[in-house]
């Protein structure tokens, strides 16, 4: 389901789906959104605490549900990631989105929400969040999110990577945090990978665990059905006392190179300042050739 572009003067909500966050933590993000001409509405979960979480599950659930049901709220931003989205996901009633479709924006732990929305037939945005916005090194991440929310998504062009696998693919863009994609497998939030362009990112993982998760997805038959694969940033990786002996590109190639679809590496998406926004559920064309990589959405906004 296509969602209308934002307009200046629109109201947008910020809620805490997962880890707790204070109002002070997101002041820079609020300033960015207000500079875009938006009216920011803070949920009750902002500043709330329940141990690690931004308030009890019931509070975070009610907060998001209220923003979802309110037709005056045109987009909902998750203030930050962390952990906690899956604890409330199955209790959310998404029926109001049929009448008033709106953007839901986030990444990391919010991958579960974005995939759940895709499974229900809604588009969403994998992009930076208020906690991270407005910093000196996040300008491009902020700008690409603004472009995606207010206008037609812009095409991305990247330099060639020596380990890319060449080719062209067209399909809906899906993906996000690798561990979250694995966590939601077999649940109502799981997505069909067939004919899709999958993108992956993660942070702070062990090399062997990236391999283990990819083996699991491969055994499920998900990797062989892709149209193309975009490998984002796997930042702050860890190794075991006995080195695993493979980096992330090699792990990816071990499990995916035999399927014949294009694969590009080092795409600027993930837990890094240059976290370019991606539109989940919209059809795009991925071209990987010797000159470089392009990812361009093919379906116009209605």
Give structural notes.
- This protein is of the alpha/beta class and 302 residues long.
- It folds into two domains: 11-150, Rossmann fold; 156-297, 3-Layer(bba) Sandwich (Glucose Oxidase, domain 1).
- It is built from nine helices and 13 strands.
- The protein has helices at 27-35, 57-69, 85-88, 96-99, 111-119, 139-150, 178-183, 207-219, 248-256; strands at residues 11-15, 39-42, 73-78, 103-106, 124-126, 156-159, 167-177, 197-203, 228-235, 263-264, 278-280, 283-289, 292-297.
- Strand 4 (103-106), helix 5 and strand 5 (124-126) form a beta-alpha-beta unit.
- Helix 8 (207-219) runs parallel beside helix 9 (248-256).
- The longest helix is centred in the N-terminal third of the chain and has 13 residues, at 57-69.
- 47% of the residues are buried.
Brief overview, please?
The chain has helices at 27-35, 57-69, 85-88, 96-99, 111-119, 139-150, 178-183, 207-219, 248-256; strands spanning 11-15, 39-42, 73-78, 103-106, 124-126, 156-159, 167-177, 197-203, 228-235, 263-264, 278-280, 283-289, 292-297. By secondary structure, the chain is α/β, with parallel strands linked by helices. The protein folds into two domains: 11-150, Murein tetrapeptidase LD-carboxypeptidase, N-terminal domain (Rossmann fold); 156-297, Glucose Oxidase, domain 1.
The low-pLDDT segments are: none
Q: What average pLDDT do the residues reach?
A: 96
Measured as a percent range, the helix fraction is 25-40%
> What would you call the structural class?
alpha/beta
Rg from Cα: 18 Å
Tally of contiguous helical segments: 9
Helices and strands, in order, run as: EHEHEHHEHEHEEHEHEHEEEE
- What is the third-level CATH name, the topology of the largest domain? Glucose Oxidase, domain 1
Question: How would you write the strand order of the largest sheet?
Answer: 6-13-12-7-8-9-10
Total domains: 2
> Which band does the percent of strand residues land in?
15-25%
Family: Belongs to the peptidase S66 family.
Organism: Rufibacter sediminis
InterPro entries: Carboxypeptidase_A_C_sf, Class_I_gatase-like, LdcA_N, Peptidase_S66_N, Peptidase_S66C, S66_fam
Protein name: LD-carboxypeptidase
